[in-house]
Amino acid sequence: MHRGPDHLGEGLGVSAEAGPYLAAKGIRDIGTGLVGAVLLVTRRFRAAGWALIALAWIPLGDAVVVLAWDGPGILAYAMHGGTAAVMIVVGAVLVRGRARNRSPSTARGAAADAAGRAPT
Fold first, then answer.
1. 3-state secondary structure of 73
2. How far apart are CA 110 and CA 117, in angstroms?
3. Number of C-alpha atoms within 13 angstroms, CB side, residue 14?
4. 9 touches 69 (CB < 8 A)
5. Is the predicted pLDDT of residue 4 greater than 80, yes or no?
6. 9 neighbors 16 (Cβ within 8 angstroms)
7. 63-84 tens-digit pLDDT
C-alpha cells in the first residue's frame, strides 16, 4: 500500500500539519452533522436514520486511512470504528422506530380515536 509523507491527517489520528487539510476535514464534519440535524428538526426520522447509516462510511473510511498510514490502531478502531458503529445503531433505531409507528392498524386506531369512534 502507498505510504506518503508524515503530514497527512492529525485530525484523523496520523501526524499532520495544521492547515487547509484540517480545515476541509472540519467543514466536512460540520456539513454532515447539519444533514442529520436538518432531517431531525424537520421530523424526517426515517430519512435521518438512512442518512446516518449512509454517512457511517465516512468514519469507516477514516479508520482505513489511519491504519493505511500507520496511525495508532486504537484510534482507528475506538474513535472512528466506534463512531461508525454508533451511527449505524442510531440510524437503525430511527429507521425501525418510525416504520413501526406507521403500521396500518396504528393509523386506523389513531383516525378512529380522532373521530371519537372505536377502532375497526
1. helix
2. 10
3. 20
4. yes
5. no
6. yes
7. 998 899 888 999 899 999 999 9
